[in-house]
Amino acid sequence: MNTLWFFNDVNLFKILCPHKFAAYKECHQFDFYKKNDYIYFEDDSANKIFLIEKGKIKIGYYTEDGNEVIKAILTKGEIFGEKALLGEEKRNEFAQSLENETSICAVSVDTLHQLMNDNKTFSLKIYKFIGLKMKKLERRLELLLFKDTKTRLLEFLKELCEEYGYDCKNTGHRVVKHPYTQKDIASLIGTTRPTLNLILNELKEENLIDFSRKEIRLKKIA
Predict the structure, then answer these.
(1) Is CB count within 10 Å lower at the N or C end of the chain?
(2) CB atoms near residue 197 (< 10 Å)
(3) How many Cβ atoms from other residues are within 10 Å of residue 210's Cβ?
(4) Distance between CA 10 and CA 207 in Å, rounded?
(5) What is the pLDDT of residues 51-107, one digit of tens each?
(6) Is 81 left (phi over 0), alpha (psi -120 to 50) or beta?
(7) Does residue 17 contact residue 53 with C-beta atoms inside 8 Å?
(8) 0.85 surpassed by pTM
């Protein structure tokens, strides 16, 4: 079998789904979700992984006290549910749509294992992606446990810069055009929207950043 999916390093924005190939086209389809629909719940069977063709997905879990903890917010081109590849049988998190027009490509674990067996380079990139994603989540957990809110935000902004940033000519600034709302960012760094807005304005007054709804300009922290 030829190379079926293309990963630009681990940048899943450029991923190709199985429906584009004759061997899988007939038995493959996209699933569509509205805002607040769940793709899966905790304790559901883990027999698929999911690719985001359009929209935004929230990954999280609930504590024993019923509080929601957000682990990640994912956008177009990213995958989730990937721990099924590592032998997870039951989900230990939920996945929920955050937008009204969310389109998901669901792939069975058996199908993905077949593709990985047929293409070793593809297989290595899958495992590299999973490893990097786990390291990123571990780092975020460390920040939540041991760092203050301002530090967590600064670290998150640096992550955004790596993923979405580009140089602004003649200024030395880094411009980040990102897919997150302030509510998303607040959830990911474990704070409230009012607190986030307060710290963003503090950073702006310190001339470290400038920001609008979908763009952040990093002046001295990139």
Answers:
(1) N
(2) 13
(3) 15
(4) 33
(5) 888 899 999 998 888 888 888 888 887 889 989 988 899 999 999 999 999 999 888
(6) left
(7) yes
(8) no
